[in-house]
Amino acid sequence: MKTDLPQSFRRLEYRPPVYTFDQVELDIALDPARTIVKSRIDVLRGKGFVAGTPLVLVGQDLEFVSLRINGDAHRHFELTPETLSIHSLPNEGKDPFVLEIISICVPEKNTTLMGLYVSNGNFFTQCEAEGFRKITYFLDRPDVMARYRVTLQAREAQCPVLLSNGNLLKTEKLPNGWHSATWEDPFPKPSYLFALVAGKLECIEETITTSSGAKKLLQIWVEPHDLKKTRHAMDSLIASIHWDEKRFGLELDLERFMIVAVSDFNMGAMENKGLNVFNTKFVLAQPETATDADFANIESVVAHEYFHNWTGNRVTCQDWFQLSLKEGLTVFRDQEFSADQMGSESGRAVKRIEDVRLLRQMQFPEDAGPMAHPIRPDEYQEINNFYTVTVYEKGSEVVRMYQTLLGREGFRKGMDLYFKRHDGQAVTCDDFLAAMADANHRDLTQFKNWYSQAGTPRVKVQEHYDATKKQYQLTLRQSCAPSPGQPDKKPFHIPLKIRLITSGNEQVEKLLELTEPEQSWTFDNISERPVLSINRDFSAPIQLEFDQSEADLLALFSGDDDPFSRWEAGQKLAMQMILGNRLPDAKLIETYRNLLMDPQLDPAFKELALTLPAETYLYEQCKSVDPQQIFTARRAFRKEIAKQLQLEWAALYQQNQTPGPFKPDAFSAGKRALKNLALSMLLEADPKTWAPMAVNQYQTADNMTDRYAALSALVIHGAKEANECLADFFNRFANDALVIDKWFALQSSRPPVEGLELTLSDVKRLREHPAFKLNNPNRARSVIHAFCANNPASFHQPDGSGYAFWVESVLALDAINPQVAARLARALDRWRLFAEPYQSKMKAALEQVAACQTLSPDVREVIGKALGN
Ligand code: TRP
Ligand code: ZN
């Protein structure tokens, strides 16, 4: 029986470092079985210096070889599996000294994909958050910022390319077929931003001139066969560089900026200084192999990592509790960039709706569950578990609220002051807030509650119209349910954009600031009872409690001038009817019809307006979830829309063709999205009649968006032609790993279809497929996560078979890669929300995992919190 409690780290226990590092020299001889790392570090007193304190470095899975101080062998040290403590420092540590350490690591055995590892025969590193300690003994914390000079050595035949951060100083031939390259990064950085890449890679490159007139070299490095898929990433990088100059006055600060693609990667991408490392999924694209969504994701991830160069790298985090300082801000920046790239106002709105949909589908459940945490957490066991939708997406919403409150100009002033004060420093979320407040002479004290309190605030809306006084009164009450460790909440500072809509159209949009638990506003000279449009553009990440009549919702859905609120009214109508087990009534169908046939509306908006709220979002509206009931009600609702509007869908399918050579722009992508929704609706209405049209689209498509959409419609609706097309798809793209991931994911995420076997049987077969690899995260996710997290109606079976599969998968993955396993472990977070028999079976599954003696700290934390320990 394991009795020791998991170790927790607490924000308030932060202490500045006793020692700090100035110059770091690394000499790394790369060998998959035995990589020798020599470090030479200039050690100085840190902010928290106390004479006589030992220097405690961290190291993980390292073989210690030797230690010197000021050139002499040093014996006064102690090794534990996680630390190297060095005593008897020169003059009690008061004088600067030179530390030299030699250690060895084994990249080919490293399946965690943290630290130094091998992927397809090439070397890569991933150091955020705490991976550098798997490369060498170090002060592996973000508030220790040092300048690095790195020499890489390798066999030239195995590793012709040797990359690290910064600028290339020199390359050398060495004896026995070895060679070396020396890189220098002029900017001080924390260890988590260190990177090296070595192997058989090739690049495309471009030279650009930035705002100050400097020439910069941009490179995208990939395996040679992927070179033809790099153009879009390069274009996205160039667009990002220009955008950051224009919108924030921020320029690229290095002579060279590199992106490298790797197929084994735990997350999306990593912003290492001057050497961003990317999951191939977010670099490689061609119309034949990547969908419109892939193209858009690449653009936003390239931008995100590039933007980190200022928000994250030049100004970094004091400690990992401040993660949202860089992540929330950088997500906000990439969202704004992508919105601007859409090229039109309606395009911006489409991007906003997509971002909000993701937030509500993923982050609202997290914020109501056992892993709920403020965007700046106060406690964690394993920091890797806190790269969450809360820190990223809600973090971005919090940054967006500054802009809403201060205006774009005010926000820019705050950013300017933030960089003026903190360039080159490791700082906190409080520092960011202070810069925003000081630059705008605003008191933002109450706004801090967004950083310290978890949970989605609820705002209850009450309205009253007095026809004789021509007066409208609005009362708002805010509350927030308890979160783990936070029984009572203080009121938030909530910016709410509203507009009173009347037939005369005389009222303009206003910004209300809700700061009290309850607040009222009175509006005079309102000629008739208005329809309230509230939380326009999703100005705050809240849940509204508002019994707005269906007539008012229909009016908003038909014509609210704020596209987000218009979309939202439609979502609310659909949600209420689905949860009430109703079918769309004649009025709603008529509104859908008018919207679909409106020539003024953007096709992308129509597609979003006709896409129903996700099952996981519907779950959050229930007291006790019956997943099968929700699935059935939602499907019936959709089928009714499909059938009632069959003629319209057929017309839209024809009208939204995009003939001629493939064009990736947002408008064409929107047309494809609407056309493919129409195709899916037609198969929903009548698979026998329309399947041949899908087969035809599948066969004749010149791009992946259309080919995949057709295949997906056939699979999802259980058409008899599906299997033949699936087989064709596999053979056609057998050599393209990212497309094969799609092939796996499509089958694993197929919802239940009458007359077909349960998806779980397919998933179990897919797991035995020769192309399945559990240790490749993209492949594992395309089968296992796709089923457990993206296919709720198949996963939540009353016999618990889905949960049994989850138990097996979490344990199998945990032995290979704890980070990937811990993500999967989150799939049962919301077990308490479910009705029987689901709830008991989920709990039993969690207990089964908890009983395993060898769980990683990552999975242990997720499971422990789910069970309430
Ligand atoms: N900082 C990275 C980003 O914003 C994400 C990241 C954190 C990451 N930890 C990682 C990526 C571990 C890969 C592996 O995008
Ligand atoms: Zn990031």
TrEMBL record:
Q: What is its EC number?
A: 3.4.11.2
Q: Which reaction does it catalyse?
A: Release of an N-terminal amino acid, Xaa-|-Yaa- from a peptide, amide or arylamide. Xaa is preferably Ala, but may be most amino acids including Pro (slow action). When a terminal hydrophobic residue is followed by a prolyl residue, the two may be released as an intact Xaa-Pro dipeptide
Domain of life according to the entry? Bacteria
Peptidase M1 alanyl aminopeptidase Ig-like fold domain location is 455-546
The record's section on CDD domains has:
M1_APN (cd09600)
Peptidase M1 alanyl aminopeptidase C-terminal domain location: 551-867
Q: Which Gene Ontology terms describe the biological processes this protein takes part in?
A: proteolysis
The Swiss-Prot or TrEMBL record lists the needed cofactor(s) as:
Zn(2+)
Q: What residue stretches are annotated with the Aminopeptidase N-like N-terminal domain? A: 110-193
Q: Name one GO molecular function term.
A: alanyl aminopeptidase activity
- Occurrences of domain Peptidase M1 membrane alanine aminopeptidase (ranges): 233-449
Keywords from the UniProt entry:
Aminopeptidase, Hydrolase, Metal-binding, Metalloprotease, Protease, Zinc
The family assignment reads: Belongs to the peptidase M1 family.
Cross-referenced NCBIfam families: pepN_proteo
| This protein's name | Aminopeptidase N
Species of origin = Polynucleobacter asymbioticus
Species lineage: Bacteria, Pseudomonadati, Pseudomonadota, Betaproteobacteria, Burkholderiales
Q: Which gene encodes it?
A: pepN
